[in-house]
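Protocol step 4 of 5: obtain the predicted structure for the target chain.
Materials: sequence only (see below). No template structures provided, no constraints applied. The aim of this step is simply to have a reference model before the mutagenesis design in step 5. Sequence pasted as it appears in the construct record:
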Amino acid sequence: MKSSRNNLFLFLFLVLLGLSAWYLLRNRGNSSFKEGEFAVTDTTAITRIMMTPVEKGQNKPPLTLEKNKEGKWILNGKYPVLEPQLHYFFKTLSQLKVKEKFKDKGNESAIKALNDFHLNVEIFAGASRMKAYQLGHEFKTHEGSIMRLQHSDVAYVVSVPGYKGYLNARFPLEPDAWRENVLFEAKPENLLSVTVTHHWKPEISFSFTRENINSLWMLNQKPAPAEVVNGYFSAYKGKVYAESFADAKFPGKKAELEALPHPDIDLTLKDSDGKIRTIHLFLRQENKNNYFGWVEGENQLLTIQHFVIDRYLTPSASPL
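Step 4 output (structure tokens):
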């Protein structure tokens, strides 16, 4: 009798345990946390990103970022991707967090807004799609944007903790925002000459030269003091970037500048492989923060910030 009662209790316990497990799994599958998982925790696994604007059900041309076999990121199959922009974007992807879940009428309105316009974001690791979601307009408080996971009927306000603003600016669609705009990448140990020509102030022009990478540096054809060499070339660390591509914003400006007798300043670098790279710089009277300019042979108008480039334009490595 006692054994039968124990068996009955055990049976009821197992039934209750099974029901509890079913309930938890069912609710876990429908939880807002699971539905609202937008962040990519391991951005190092990402190999391809596709962002496609969709308006009134019509797909616009996508923007694609893809890592090639050499580990380099390429924009739209053509251009190297700007590394700082990519790192900033990956940081955003890793920090996305649900701020608010829409309910009832609010959810209906949010879904309607997403159907009218959204950016379809797809993130891949190899052939496997890691994330797919829609990024819509900014939320009315300007603290996040409306988003939903692909095939979901629930919309959320998603933001980056500590960031006051909407997310759309962090998902730029303009190719120029993603293109690498490197002015130069020169390792001092590989350089044979650096020549800076100030066309309007020739007295402050200068040139560092040496016969080979094992020779001592000359400054304006005289032996250069070690402290001057060390001070100047200490600025040459990694890639040096322009601020932005400028042709679209300043149409016709490059042709106008090319018609001038010469740039205001030329910076020319020659390395031990015989490669020569010249950057032409033009002072801007209306903007004291940057130059107009371009790299010879690449012919894309750029804006170049003074605080980035001026350290290379004087042998004392101090701003002009």
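Step 4 remarks: The longest helix spans residues 2-29. The radius of gyration is 29 Å.
Proceed to step 5.
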